[in-house]
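The pair is listed for reference:
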Amino acid sequence: MRPSTAAPNCVNTSTFGKLFSCAADAAIYAQPLWVANVTIQGAAHNVVLAATVHNSGYLFDADANPCVTYWKMQLIPSGEKFTNFGDVSTADIFLDIGIVGTPVIDNTTSTVYLVTRTKTTSGKIGTHQRLHALHLADGT
């Protein structure tokens, strides 16, 4: 049996640890997702998909230091904004509530699926949940 590369004697501060960090517009509750060999601008890249409570999706290069952001997509329709804990009477998530569930990636179609939560800012106030589909390589 081959020893694990994650064995205690192999994982130490010289070979394992934080590589870089990337800025986002708000907290990230959803699990970031790593994808290998995504073709962007004609080349293959390992990427990390992250989503924030302000309903933004980001695609970062997983290997670049300093951080490289391939795209940011803000998923809030005109006349709406992200919700907060007071809009839905919960203390489970504090303060803002936008994208909190982990997105799903369909590698066969390079499609990212994620759910946003917004509220109407004028007229009859109401909250909305929407399922979005984005292209992994460019966010469209």
Notes: The beta strands are 33-40, 43-51, 56-61, 69-74, 80-84, 96-97, 104-106, 111-120, 127-135. The first strand starts at residue 33 and ends at 40. Residues 10 and 96 are 40 Å apart (CA to CA). The chain has one domain: 33-135.
